[in-house]
Amino acid sequence: MSAPFKNKTAISDNMVVMNRSYAFLIFCAGLCLGAWVSVRSWDGTLFVYVGEPRSPAAVRSLVEYSTLSHDALTRSAQAQLMSNAVIYKDSGMLGVQLGHPLIYGANGAKQFGCQVQDLSGVYDHMQLIFVGTGVTSAGEPPRMIVNARCRSEHDLNQLETVWIPMQNIMTSKPTDQEFDFPGENLIHLKLESIPDQWPENWVLWSVSFYRDDASNEQMILDSEKMRQVSDKLLSFDWKAE
Description:
This protein is of the alpha+beta class.
């Protein structure tokens, strides 16, 4: 009668070992899942692939990128661009601020479209094309083409404001011309098809992102794409004094 009792004891011991093994496997799986989620989120905010830092010492913690809006991960590039689009006027300067688009990279993950603090983005420059309304030159609308650096330093959801010295431009003679404005707010501005009077209203017609070394194809968001996400294009009025 003692043998069956021993067998039952052995079976019971084996079951305990198996249960402990299963519990350990479940624990490991849960630990891996938790690590996977924590790498991709912080306090409910998701993250994107941040690219390569410009130097090993420049690697930043995930917490510093936690200001990125969850909506930015689900919006299209043009929707994110227009979501935070705003124009400022300050002491003769025109400020244009756009949303920071996220772009699908070669690895299938979304990446920052422009430079973020110490990390390079997919692009490093952008081109804004404004079209003047109400006047034409030989049937062509006036165009103001602004090339500026593309970066996000303070709020990951927005690009840094591009400042255009409109008052200085408007005090010059209305004609086709080019300007270079050096300094931290380095921009190159070109005016085309300018009639004998300055337009009083300008509309943002397209935004292009590109690399200065031409290593990537540019991404163009034209007026049609921007109208898909906004009923009204970004515009401003400016009267020459």
